[in-house]
Amino acid sequence: MRRSYPCIEVDLNKLAHNCKTILKLCNNQGIEVVAITKGFCAKKPIVNAMVEAGIKTIGDARIQNLRGVAELNCEKYLVRIPMESDAVNVVKYSDVSLNSELKVIEKLSKAAKRAKKTHNIILMIDLGDLREGVLELDLLDTVKEILKLPNIKLIGVGTNLTCYGGVLPDEDNLSKLVELRDKLEKILDIELPIISGGNSSSLYMVINGQIPNGINQLRIGEGIILGTESSFANKIDNTFQDVFTLKGEIVEIKNKPSVPKGTIGLNAFGEEPHFEDVGIMKRAILAIGRQDIKVDAMSPRDEKIKILGASSDHLILDLTENMKDYRVGDIVDFDVKYGCLLQAMTSPYISKYYKHR
């Protein structure tokens, strides 16, 4: 089959291997894995491969993505706190949603009642990262109000760390989450079976055997799809880091100066560029740009290639030290970090291909 470039190639066998590794790592410590699919827009072939590898629960930040895999036989989480205006769809397409606003939960209650369903929720608690979550001083009163709502079942508490404030999960803040769950159960005489202790940034604690007893769920995206934990960007043993390959086609190769000629002003993105004079370079241009990718979150597989920069539509490479005879029409492969993968998978201008054995 003739391919269209630029593209992302997904190795579904390596993805399945990573799923099994992360499942074993977490399950051995009594931790359920919610596989987060937002990094690849819940593309159906990838979600299918995850489910076939043993994933029983997926989570996504966009209800549109969950709607696209509605027929798959797995539990579905909405991991971005819901919009009040989207309550009907949240109840329809997700089994569980993460919540922090009582007003929104009231809307979910009404939508669930009309749909003759019970909607499960996890109440998010802010432990210092300052993204979503109720504060500890409001927690008890909030839960009391939630328990009054029909067609809503509070099944646990959770937290999110690192994504906004960069606060690392540690024994103190995750133990606090367990303590707050225990306090709620005791005071209100209820059962909250799930303690959702964060995302791939919590994986380093699982790997090191440091995660507090009681944490029994993690929401894992990067750990599965890129084989890295996100607190320190370390590789996870027995995982692949090259599940996803970004490919771009060379559209120009020329020897040019390393510094532009003329008065330097702002570029197309309002930035003032800076250049080092290293003489004449062998430069290549690829037909891919900042509209599609995050340039500082990607790296050429060929270590003798350097990325010089990019405009909206063109990626500029330095081939000066490279001994390969690259030509116009050749394809260059890149590894991607999470930010680049997210942007590339979202871009309609990047084709997606799925590799099986």
From TrEMBL:
Cofactor(s), by name: pyridoxal 5'-phosphate
Recall the GO molecular function terms of this protein's record. Answer: alanine racemase activity; pyridoxal phosphate binding
Would the keyword Isomerase be found if you checked this record's keyword annotation? yes
Which SUPFAM superfamilies does this chain map to?
PLP-binding barrel
One Gene Ontology term, aspect cellular component: cytosol
Which residues does the UniProt record annotate as the domain Alanine racemase N-terminal? 10-223
The UniProt entry, under NCBIfam families, shows: racem_Orr
Q: What is this protein called?
A: Alanine/ornithine racemase family PLP-dependent enzyme
Q: Which organism is it from?
A: Clostridium senegalense
